Amino acid sequence: MDKFIRYKTRKGQSGIYRLLIATGWFLLLVAEGCHQQLPQARILFTGDILLARNVQMEMEQKKISPWTHMGNLFHDANLVIGNFEGAVGDGIADTMSPSTSPVFNVQGKYIKFLSEAGFTGLSIENNHSFDMGDSGKTNTIGALLSNDLIPLTYNNSPRFFHVNGITVAVIAVNLVPGRNMQHQQIPSVEILQKLRLAKSLSNMVVVFIHWGSELLEWPSHDQRQCAEFLVSHGADLIIGCHPHVIQAPETVLGKPVFFSLGNHLFDQKYEDTKEGLMVDCKISGGYFTCSGIITHTSKNSFFPKITGDKVYKLDQVKLHDAIQITGVTLSAESIDTGDYRLKLQGYRDGKKIWQTQPMHILSLQKSKLDGQREYLVALEKHYSNMDDENGVRPYVYSVEKDGLVSRWRGSALAWPLLDAELLPGKEQVLCGLHRGDSFIQLNPKNSNTRVLPYQWNGFGFNAIEDSAICKKCKELYGK
């Protein structure tokens, strides 16, 4: 470029020409600078982690961290999440449980190794979370937080992580019954809400899920069905654990699904359980691409080592935008409380201009309810004297330069509400999924449901009886 400019100026080109050349060079530098400033990040996921039994014995004998051989891999990443199996307890297990699975009692002093290794957060949504009873799970959450680690549970999902200008939402799900016999189910209304909320406030939705059958080296029919449901409703990446062996990942409906990462740090001795898969996701230029890194534990150890093999590189996936209304992009700050809470934030030109108080938000959608201006349609949990319940309530907000302005606060529409979603293609219509009981005779345990569509009238929602719209709303909820 310099040679080109000198040659032209030697030929006696005008000052205007030289100015154009210099301007072009400046614009090229600016373009290159902008290209370099595109958000980039690296996220790592690992499989099952045990800090009890034989792993504990090896830590005590060697007096070193299990991640001594991993180098700076985790510290070089922006976000590192694994699956923590077990519970921090006092050594007394829940003997009343019908579960026959082993009890993993972890001593709290070993949690520091996870933090020192470079982990950001740990999913504790699995069949061993309640090995030491309810208090054990509470103790585990406290131990993680005191070591600057973020506990990921179903109740605090989605959890929002902000890395280099990119928002990643993680939803932790467990489909395997534990000692308390509790687990989630797919499909479910709650998971639909969590997926909607995650997608509306992030650029990438990750579902970290505990599923499948132990030692099965291929995904089951149920895993495949669940994967299709999760992807079709907003998941961009699925990370699976529980089988304790690697299950080869696949692209499902255009999104990467790592069915099982196998063991990362565990004391099982069956040959295939000694190999693990770490998922290495690179985010750059508005896309993310994930590949696998193989780890192995040697015959006389349970500490993982990287083999050097990179496998299973899957197709890149485009990031999506968070909700933007009237030039304001919405974001969220996760709050560590006993009850799920978020602080909504508004950003304009990359600068935060307002923040709400903590809110119990279930889902968010934007819509031109009146056909002109965009509004924010929210589902929140609030107590009401009308039904004496902490129930699902619809809200409508306008997004202003100073924050959210409430335009309508509903109770639960015609009947007690389970969920409400804007009808695709008809954003002035809200499809309500109701319980089978009524406000006149409340019965929260009523397992029946009914669907009713509503239309915005400028002051609230009116029920409508259009048969075609009713049918579409029912189809939305699989009725």
Radius of gyration: 26 Å
CATH homology superfamily name of the largest domain: Metallo-dependent phosphatases
The CATH level-2 architecture of the largest domain is identified as: 4-Layer Sandwich
Uncertain ranges: 1-36
Overall pLDDT: 89
What fraction of the residues are assigned to beta strands by DSSP? 35-45%
By secondary-structure content and strand pairing, the structural class works out as: alpha/beta
Give the overall shape. globular
Task: Please report the distance between the alpha carbons of the first and last residues.
Answer: 66 Å
In short:
The protein has 479 residues and is an alpha/beta fold. It has eight helices and 31 strands.
Keywords:
Purple Acid Phosphatase, chain A, domain 2, disordered N terminus, 20% helix, globular, alpha/beta, 479 residues, 8 helices, 31 strands
Task: Walk me through the structure.
With 479 residues, the chain is an alpha/beta fold. It has 3 domains: 2-36; 40-318, 4-Layer Sandwich (Purple Acid Phosphatase, chain A, domain 2), CATH 3.60.21.10; 365-476, no CATH class. The protein has 8 helices and 31 strands. β26 and β27 form a beta hairpin. The radius of gyration is 26 Å and the shape is globular. The termini are far apart.
SSE blueprint and pairings:
Elements: H1 2-10, H2 15-36, E1 40-50, H3 53-62, E2 79-85, E3 87-88, E4 105-106, H4 112-117, E5 121-123, H5 133-146, E6 150-152, E7 159-163, E8 166-174, H6 189-200, E9 204-210, H7 221-232, E10 237-241, E11 246-247, E12 250-252, E13 255-258, E14 260-261, E15 263-265, E16 275-284, E17 287-296, E18 305-311, E19 317-318, E20 324-325, E21 328-335, E22 341-348, E23 351-355, E24 361-367, E25 375-384, E26 389-400, E27 403-409, E28 417-423, E29 426-435, E30 449-456, E31 461-463, H8 467-476
Parallel strand pairs: 1-2, 1-15, 2-5, 3-4, 5-6, 8-9, 9-10, 10-13
Antiparallel strand pairs: 1-16, 7-8, 11-14, 12-13, 16-17, 17-18, 17-19, 20-21, 21-22, 22-23, 24-25, 25-26, 26-27, 28-29, 29-30, 30-31
